[in-house]
Amino acid sequence: MSGSSASAPHAVTYSYLGPVGTFTWAALRQVPEAAGQVWRSVNNVGEALDDVVTGRSIGAVIAIENSVEGGVSATQDALANIPGLRITGEYLVPVDFVLVARPGTTLADVRVIAAHPVAYAQCHLWLDARLPEHEHLPATSNVSAAAQLLADNPIADAAVAPPGIEKEHAVAVLAEHIGDNPNAVTRFVLVTSSTTIPPRTGADKTSVIVELPTDQPGALVEMLEQFATRGVNLSLLESRPIGDELGRYRFVIDLDGHVLDERVADALLGLKRFSPKVLFLGSYPRADKVAVTVTSRYDDEVFIDARDWLRGLISGEPDEP
Ligand SMILES: O=C(O)C(=O)Cc1ccccc1
């Protein structure tokens, strides 16, 4: 295992939803700069982000989206509400689940199942079909779900956990591959408080959170036009309630490209002019490293040429016939 749990003064620390063995831990193992640093296991996303805000940790790895359930709302809301956070990297972890219990337990004995809510949501078809009368006991993580089976006076009979858990804890596997989608993948992000934007790689993503002007018919279309008219593709668009009154939503958006791409910068300027609140969460390399391609009319040079043309007109140069 890379990383260490021992704390040293002024050590570079990364926070993650622990303990060791969670999918979040697997994501942190993909962060090159975290290798050999201190890894701090925390119980929830709020705690991880608080570590970053207070400077206790230099970064936190948190789950932001999965291919079955969509955006992780706790993460989206935390990023919208806690100022000064930036996403600097993304990492993909395939997620597969097993059902475990104390040795000797059979499937027929299982009534209460400990599971992280996101994991539970991804296994509910399997659980509903095999154990229709089960009860869900929420756990703080996939590994803590299994660990609590071995606590004194455990409440749960079984737990949803990552494969391999039986090597770390004295539990027995009752069933494998219980996830409802065999290709499920969770996307994690590295969040820091540094405002330095990672360099442009050509295979980048930008995350923003946008509020719409109130009571303006067509505002959503106008927001989307900012991207469409600059050839910017969106890879995530979700609405979350702002929370102050019914009917007010903010939009969580991931788009293809980097803020240093002219078309992305221009789309952000358009958004800023129209929206009462735009929160830039960061531009960072895509986990899949797939280069972003655009048709030539959205290339950087086209925007630069247009700006030069306008500057020329303003400074008195004759327009070309
Ligand atoms: O990181 C983990 O293992 C967690 O418990 C959170 C989680 C839950 C379900 C899918 C991915 C991450």
Q: Note the run of SSEs as H and E.
A: EHEHEEHEEEHEHEHEEEHEEHEH
CATH-derived topology of the largest domain: Alpha-Beta Plaits
What's the domain count?
A: 3
CATH architecture of the largest domain: 2-Layer Sandwich
Strand content: 25-35%
First and last CA, distance: 66 Å
Sheet/helix structural class: alpha/beta
By DSSP, the count of extended strands is 15
**Mean pLDDT reading:** 94
Catalytic activity: prephenate + H(+) = 3-phenylpyruvate + CO2 + H2O
InterPro entries: ACT-like_dom_sf, ACT_dom, Chor_mutase/pphenate_deHydtase, Preph_deHydtase
EC number: 4.2.1.51
Keywords: Amino-acid biosynthesis, Aromatic amino acid biosynthesis, Lyase, Phenylalanine biosynthesis
Write a brief caption for the model.
The protein contains 9 helices and 15 strands. It is α/β, with parallel strands linked by helices and 321 residues long. The chain has 3 domains: 11-94 and 184-196, Periplasmic binding protein-like II (D-Maltodextrin-Binding Protein, domain 2), CATH 3.40.190; 98-176, Periplasmic binding protein-like II (D-Maltodextrin-Binding Protein, domain 2), CATH 3.40.190.10; 198-321, 2-Layer Sandwich (Alpha-Beta Plaits).
Secondary-structure blueprint of this entry?
Elements lengths: L12 E5 L5 H6 L9 E5 L2 H10 L4 E8 L3 E2 L1 H9 L4 E9 L3 E4 L10 E4 L1 H14 L4 E4 L3 H6 L10 E4 L3 H4 L3 E4 L9 E8 L11 E8 L7 H10 L5 E8 L7 E8 L5 H13 L2 E9 L14 H15 L7
The chain binds 3-phenylpyruvic acid (PPY).
Key features of this structure:
Alpha-Beta Plaits, six-stranded mixed sheet, D-Maltodextrin-Binding Protein, domain 2, alpha/beta, 3 domains, 321 residues, five-stranded mixed sheet, binds 3-phenylpyruvic acid, single chain
